Each structure stands twice: as C-alpha cells, then as structure tokens.
C-alpha cells in the first residue's frame, strides 16, 4: 500500500482525491491541511492528516514526507486572489513541495496545472498572474529530476463525475468535473507509462483508464 501526500487536501479536488485514494486498494492518503479544525473530514475517511502551510519553510514541508511514496500538489489560490497569494501558493508553494520531495527521496510527484500554460495563451489580465505561476511551476517540475506527471484540466465544475474523460497532449478546450480530475490523478499514480508526461483532460466518452492509455 503506497501512501500519497495530498497538498491542498481541503480543496474541492483534494477532498475527492483523498476519498478515492482511501477507497482504492493500492493507495492510502495523507491529507495536508492548514487548519487542524479541518481534520475531522479526513479522519472520518481513515486518512492520515498533516497540519502545515505551503508558506512554511522547505524543511517543515519535508518533515511531512517521512512515510510517503508520492506527492500530489492539488493546491491552488485560484485566479481571483491577489497576485502575492498566487505567487506564494501556486509557484513558491509548489516549488517548495518539489524541493522537499527531493530532500526526502520521494520521487513521484503529480502536479495539477492549468489547461494551457504556454505563453500566448494566458488569457485575461486577471488570469495572467495565475497562468504565469503555473507556467513556471510546470517548468520547474520538468527540470526537477522527479518522476513527474503534470495534469492540465479544463474548466473545473462541481458536476458529479462520470468516470469518463477525454485526455491527450492537446485536445479541444472544454469543462471537466472536479471529481473526474481526482479519478484521473489516482489512475495517473498507478500508471508507470505516465511518468515524465503531461496531458490535458476534459469531460469525454472514454473511461478514465482507457483514456489515459492513449496519452
């Protein structure tokens, strides 16, 4: 049974992810949360809990990884927070988690990015700081030496997941339920062929496992 540290566990994708990891036969979750009052949701699922902040120092974050086999960075300030918070969470927080993983010898790292972080596709003025942070976090992970997977989801919704998606290196822009993104993450961690790869994902007609085989 492999243990997965989920950064951003109390977010909407994070909660789905922790539940799915706990329901799986291959994984168990360790939920990283900022506030201990958030712990009961995860403890009721049987998941481990670690209280820390992405603005903590690398050594503090590394201490959470003594017993884990993989890290998922599902945290995000969102495109509507101030630029300072976006930088501290989506860029600096992500990079510190990568460096903490390297320090502890945790090689497997999955990152939830934005749908298209390439320059020239950063969108509106309000969205650009968020996209820029995702762009540089993606770049850092690619060159980190970690066994990475970068997942680029379409516009996130709270619709109930269908278990069916469209996935590929470059696919038409569309929406995707957060629950289905969580399902994709679990399958990604169980798919050696997705190491050192990245892909876009939206709602679709193929079961998650089948869709990811085509990436």
From TrEMBL:
Residues 8-192 form the NAD(P)-binding domain. SUPFAM superfamilies: NAD(P)-binding Rossmann-fold domains (SSF51735). Pfam families: NAD_binding_10 (PF13460). InterPro entries: NAD(P)-bd_dom, NAD(P)-bd_dom_sf. Gene3D superfamilies: NAD(P)-binding Rossmann-like Domain. PANTHER family: FLAVIN REDUCTASE-RELATED (PTHR15020), UPF0659 PROTEIN YMR090W (PTHR15020:SF50). This is Sugar epimerase. It comes from Salimicrobium jeotgali.
